Amino acid sequence: MSAALLRRGLELLEPPGRAKAPPGLQAGRAGPRAAGAARRRKRAPEPGRNKATVKGRVVKSAIEEYHKKKPVNHLRENLQYMLKGRRVADKAVTEQVLAQNIGRKSKDQPPEKTEKKKPEGTVFTEEDFRKFEREYFGIP
What we know:
Blueprint: H1 3-13, H2 34-40, H3 62-69, H4 75-84, H5 91-101, H6 126-137
């Protein structure tokens, strides 16, 4: 048996002198389903203009709508804004900011500068080699 049929049956059995409870305080409406029932209830039609009719409607121009939605190029204004406040920070300040932003990970560390090794030349001359050959091998 549904709740609506049960309510109607109770209304029939009610004594005639007892007045009905206001609609907001009816029994069975205080449960969790009360909010859902209120949402499902159809709204009464509001007085006002009927939106289904064409009377009073202004026709929009497609060209005007296109021009309204057309993207605007702000490049010139942005460049003027950027060039207006031209201040260069001190070298020491920029170095400090860069040093603070360097992380502890090895990938964040700047590469170490390695000094190029100069090719090592010999200390001995050709005369020294000939002299060594004569002494060691005994070749005149």
